[in-house]
Target: DUF2563 domain-containing protein
Amino acid sequence: MQVDVTEMRSGANRSYNAATLAMEGADQLSRASIGTSIFGDFPPAESFHGALAEAHSNHIQRLREHETHLGVLGDKGHKTASVFVEMEERNAEALRSVL
Model:
């Protein structure tokens, strides 16, 4: 089995970059707000505003979850790469000691 540790670390770094973008998106979206009277002051407009506000909140929450998951994925990618490197070093040392 052959493992490309450099590519594994590169993928982990891309996950970190994606996590950062998700965080920035969530931050920007959370700073935006929709006024309660922008659609008018009658029941259907208020209902629409409520649905829009709920979707807005859900998008922010989902972006925050993506940020977390992508960060964890990056962590796992780097940890796995390190495990392979350490295992390869141990195996090489074991072979050298036998020879």
Summary: The chain has a mean pLDDT of 95. The chain is about 85% helix and 0% strand.
